[in-house]
Amino acid sequence: MTINIDQANQKVIDAFMDARPMVTGVAPARDVIPGMHDNLLLHAGPPATWENMSGPVRGAMIGALLFEGRAKSAEEAEEMLSSGKFEFAPCHHYDSTGPMAGVMSPSMLVYIVENTTTGYKAFSGLNEGRGKVLRMGAYSEEVINRMQWLNDVLGPAVDAALKEMGGLDIRTLLAKALHMGDDGHNRLDAASLLYTNLLAPYITKTAKDADTASEIIKFLGENALSVLNPVMAGCKTMTQAGHNVEGSTIVTVMARNGTDIGIRVSGLGDQWFTAPAPVVDALYFPGFTEKDASRDIGDSTITETAGIGGFAMASAPALVTFIGGTPRDAINTTLDMYEITFGEHKHFSIPFLDFRGTPTGVDIRKVVEKNMPPRVNTGVAHKDPGVGQVGAGVVSVPMSVFEDALVAFAEKYGI
Amino acid sequence: MAVIKAEIRSGSYFDSAVLMQLQRSLGQLEGIQDAGVVMGTEENKEILAHIDLLSPEVQASKPDDMVVVVRAENEEAANNALGSVDELLSRKKSNVDQEYRPKSLEGAAEMLPDASWVLISVAGRFAARVAHQALDLGKHVFLFSDNVSVEEEISLKNKAAEKGLLVMGPDCGTAMISGIGLGFANKIRKGPIGVVAAAGTGLQQVTTRIHQLGSGITHGIGTGGRDLKEPIGAATFLMALDVLARDPETKVITLVSKPPAPKVAEKVIRQARKINKPVVINFIARKPTTRQDGNLYFATGMDDAAALSVQLAENTPDVTSGPELPLDKFAEGQRYFRGLFSGGTLAYEAQFLLEEFVPRVWANAPIKKENQLKDSLSSEEHTIVDLGEDEFTVGRLHPMMDNEMRIRRLMEEARDPEVAVIMLDVVIGYGSHPDPASELAPAIKNAKTLAEKAGRYLEVVVVATGTDEDPQVLDTQVEQLRDAGAWVSSSNEEVVKYAGSILQALNQEAEKEYVFTPIDLSTLKKDLEAINVGLESFAENLVDQETPVIHVEWKPPAGGNDKLMSILDRMKKFS
User: Is residue B259 part of a domain?
Assistant: First the structure.
């Protein structure tokens, strides 16, 4: 069979863009994620073992067992985790995506996001806000208590609200947020407010009392990352729609776990191409330095994979302060990403660039040809379990994963 | 003993990331051990205390205050750091207007879609690849890079010929298009002279001399040093010549080159001859045999070429094409010349003149020994026979008096299917045949009829030497000959050149013609916009000439990895 790469790639990005992710509800992971079981723990990035697992992922795993009530102490949790009793798997193997450590355990509530064009469902947990949080590897009592509150109070009310409103359209929300100064990944201030605004009228009806409604709405409204998880699951439904297309060189997954970074390519099936996760070029919170930083981590690069996030940075000039730079740098970052993407998004556009569509569909041919890896903005977790976020910055995906994928592509298709 | 110094700025709000950036910059200053830049919240003050950055004034700061605190090796370093806060905060903004630099040719082409030119000066190993991309995007190429192989040059120039684009180079140092200099170029006035040159300094020398002499140029097109060598065969030169021939603003065309391969030079000259404009030729070290030949002017050096060009531009002679050639009438295979002369000097001059049109002329009395006809009675290829030579006049009247032998030879040549043109001389005057045309005209008619019956066309050309006052009367002779279908002139040179033009055309069609899509003249004439890949100074030069240019921040493809490059190249066949 002769492949036509350009045609295959067009098919892929059309599928990305035609996906219509709707947030339909919130439910325990074990009830909705196919294959989830009591001893399965999901994490961000490509596959990892307890031995090579990064600090933040280990910390979040410990936190998850504490949260699940499976362990009474961190020490006990660590012992259990290293015993071989638990199965660890990438979120991406279970239609899921998790920010930072990305740890998901069976009892945690997860968002259900459905691509109404294909019926495919993806999942992601509830966002805990900033500071000391499980996704950054923290597992103190305060962290576990917040997780508990999310599961007991916020989650059920949001689930009821989403069902009451008949689902929430993530693509439309993102398209609006890009015109309000968000990039859809690291800056979700506008998107989170839109999200809160859409949910609030229903939460007032579904929460058990006015105080609870107030508490939930306040939490959602104050957390500039409230919508991050449903956005990531939404992006997962988009890129999954274009996955497994014969002859396509488009990247459908980019993910890191603090140890490794990995990509998947549409025309190369479920094979991961991995490299050691890079160190983030970051600005640190006072008291922290590069020595404290974990390597690059999280599934949130699914947003860049879908054509937003760092790729749409030109629509989020305020974000450059995050990485040290000028608004011009933000525009140039987006312009750079046009060099390595196959197309331009028909639903996501950038006002400053005359409403040009965002760069969509990382093409491994272009990445290798131009020796230009995708650029990602990201938070930085502490390298040790239990600490949390220490800074934020910018990172480039290592070239070798794209080069390896290109060679594999040539082998598979006899090029 | 470390010094802790702080500055509190009330009511100034900065995003936390700006503060982090400032903190990092301060921390890098000499003599600074640690720095903290935060808003004065309780939480932040705790952190500062923890890392030994707390002073009483920091302790007193409020949440709306910006706190800048440093721990330095000494007082001076601390003061310097705090004194540089404003500069560090403002430095961040200085690059706002910096232009975006695309990373690839295609990215640049999107930014400047009207750019018709791509300047390439990357390492030779990658140059052809970039040039192919430029051609694929429909752009003319100025290829400064050297170390491009002959095979790559051929492949590029084939593509360019197909697409009607110029590939100036490789190793092309300079060009001037519509008054804009590319590469190493001088500021030359616009004017009526179009220049094509193999490479750099020749073009610069000739065009600067033209400028100094008060004239100017339309375009100065470089071709690369190898263009006039055999394997390339003047691919760019001929396309450049063609586009200048069609450019109404170009009144004179000047060609400059180091010594070209002889065959290639002839190809260029043949092409130049077809142009209805004066063409000044200076192929260095190739001694001109004549000063002027039709529209061609042969210069003795670059200075002479410039002066001659300016002179011709000021006072352009009419070189619109000579007599129309009956090329369509000839049958396939007709391509040779036979000259049957009665006059020795006329025959001799004809040999000399004809050599400019055809590669070799055989003769029974040749100028060059190697062109000696083996058998004077039997012609070969292009042949000139002087029938007044002793070998023919033994026991016989001179052909000026007796036409019989010439008529017999005429009929013989007319029967040769490879013969296209036969030339005769008719010399009248005292002592000559009393009315040569009365015998020759019917013979010419017969010869032409014979050819016609065989499905061919025979052109018979005659030089008639004599005056009105001669007993035979020139006009009467000419009239008879013309009535018989001959092409007649009283100038030997004119007749030979007319015949030569026919032969050249016939033989050129026999040899493989260089076919190319003509360059769209408007792409040269419109305001130049360019994309630059390689040496940044070439982009700067264009900016200085107020020419829109996009400089590509180019990197070797696939980081210069041959294996990956070759995969990428093969992948192109699958897309």
Answer: yes
